[in-house]
Amino acid sequence: MTLEHLDVLIVGAGLSGIGAACHLQAKSPGKTYAILEARDAIGGTWDLFRYPGIRSDSDMYTLGYTFRPWEEAKAIADGPSIRSYIRETARDHGVDEKVRFGHRVGRADWSSADARWTVEVTRTGADAGPDGGETLRLTCSFLFMCSGYYRYDEGYSPRFEGSERFRGQVVHPQHWPEDLDYAGKRVVVIGSGATAVTLVPAMAERAAHVTMLQRSPTYIFSLPSRDALADKLRGALPAKVAYPIVRWKNVLLSTLTYQLSRRSPGTMKSLIRKGLQRALPPDYDIDTHFKPTYDPWDQRLCIVPDGDLFEAVKSGKASVATGKIETFTETGIKLASGEELAADIIITATGLNLLVFGGLTLSVDGRPIDYPKTVSYKGTMLCGVPNFAYTLGYTNASWTLKADLVSGYVCRLLNYMDAHGYQQCTPLAPDPSVPTGAFLDLQSGYVQRSLDALPKQGAVAPWRLHQNYARDVLLFKYGPIDESMEFSKAGRAASTR
Q1: Which terminal residue of the chain has fewer beta carbons within 10 Å of its beta carbon, N or C?
Q2: Which family does it belong to (predicted)?
């Protein structure tokens, strides 16, 4: 049977996948490609999550694509606006026609003899036709994973004692019911991360009361929803000129915040606390509810645009409770302290489940790839795995900053191989004397629960995963393309070293 062959197969039609396709068309024209999307819509995260108030936790001048200026007034944008931005980008660049919906990638097998991947795909959903559920096989010369890092079909839901007794409704934000009516009802949101601090002020507008219940505090600070510099430049300069100015300003500010947090955590703590003192009532118990036990950027910082969470607390429409859950009751939640929180609806904003490469199973020349035993190369490839790349955005800055760089790098790699007649590129593993460590340096629960399933990173470049955009610009755009990389033609087995 003749299999359909493509030069590049992109997996995922979210922010990363659509951007990757646009870069590929512009920088490696003539390459045949397709985008495989397991769901039935473009947008990824921004199409899946539909809970009240959903918004970016990064400014849109850095979350937006480098090649498509963000032109709306709000710098911290809502979910529907971001979804529209992604879809308009796909339509305007014609890449929407390359998306194959209802195509879930299950495994991929590399053949050095043929210098190509054989990819197994399950067709599901409305686009599957009369043969829905069938398994297809495609081949490609390069496999580019842009599927994010968490499970789309299941959020993290820890077991709570007595949850079966609760007579109200329990909802996870990842699966928000369209018909959920919370007007005039008492709501408890379990969690204190980005989802919780978004939900609380949004739901407080209609609910009788919303309580954010947290086991321990998170660092939360306020930023304006509009960018003052962008507002000044808008109209004064063309968007293509103003956009990179604002983008680099925000990159430098976020880098400064991160470096200050790492090098002088006490200073950063003091700055965050002063912001809280300005935003909350004078007698508010900041130590109990907004003083974490860890340093800033051990976990992600949470942004609240225009202090909306603090405004909801000051108005009395929302409150924060801090403590361990002893049990759910018929009418709410009882804490270990004895305090009881009455609730008609409980929202479990308890986080994500990480899923490495969308659950993809890889093998190279019949050798299964065990991800925890691999070492990352430049934070975007795996040592010993040919013609394979993935997009993993920054944990301390906007996802798209890294996604744009990775897409550009993949195009550099493809063009280099074409120019030199190569068909395989295989990152080499570091010398055994080079120490390796955890792939992600975050203490967040969703990361810690999954570290054992992730690749490792090396202590030095190019196996080191830097969380630094300016440094990565030099690495991906201008760094040597052949550094610790083996190039070859078909027929030569990939090297693991």
Answers
A1: N
A2: Belongs to the FAD-binding monooxygenase family.
Give pTM, 2 decimals: 0.93
What is the topology classification, in CATH, of domain 163-348? FAD/NAD(P)-binding domain (3.50.50)
CB atoms within 10 A of CB 46: 24
Tens digit of each residue's pLDDT, the chain (497 residues): 568 999 999 999 999 999 999 999 999 999 999 999 999 999 999 999 999 999 998 899 999 999 999 999 999 999 999 999 999 999 999 999 999 999 999 999 999 999 999 999 999 865 555 555 789 999 999 999 999 877 777 777 788 999 999 999 999 999 999 999 999 999 999 999 999 999 999 999 999 999 999 999 999 999 999 999 999 998 899 988 999 999 999 999 999 999 999 999 999 999 999 999 999 999 999 999 999 999 998 888 999 999 999 999 999 999 999 999 999 999 999 999 999 999 999 999 988 778 888 889 999 999 999 999 999 999 999 999 999 999 998 888 899 999 999 999 999 999 999 999 999 999 999 999 999 988 777 666 666 676 777 899 999 999 998 889 999 999 999 999 999 999 999 876 656 55
Residue with tokens 């019949």: 366
Q: Which amino acid is present at 110?
A: W
Residue 40 CB coordination number (10 Å): 13
Complete DSSP assignment for 351-416: ---B-GGGG-EEEETTEE--GGGSBEETTTEETT-TTEEE----SSS-HHHHHHHHHHHHHHHHHH
Burial zone of 181 (CB within 10 Å; 0-12 exposed, 13-18 middle, 19+ buried): exposed
For residue 382, the cross-strand partners are 376
Nearest 5°: phi and psi at 447? -80, -50
d(CA 458, CA 30): 35
If we measure between CA atoms, which residue out of 472, 482, 451, 484 comes closest to residue 383? 484
Q: Where do the structural domains in the chain lie, given as residue ranges?
A: 4-152+353-488, 163-348
Query: Which stretches of 146-185 are assigned E, i.e. beta strand?
Result: 169-171
Q: Is the CB of residue 13 less than 8 Å from the CB of residue 148? A: no
* CA distance linking residue 372 with residue 494, whole number of Å: 19
For the chain, report the end-to-end CA distance as a whole number of angstroms: 35
Q: Is the dihedral of CA 303, 151, 93, 8 positive or negative?
A: positive
Rg, the chain, Cα only: 24
Q: Report CA 60 to chain centroid distance, whole Å.
A: 14
What are the tokens at 135?
Answer: 């398994």
Euclidean distance between CA atoms 224 and 74, whole angstroms:
9
Distance CA 3, CA 118 (A): 9
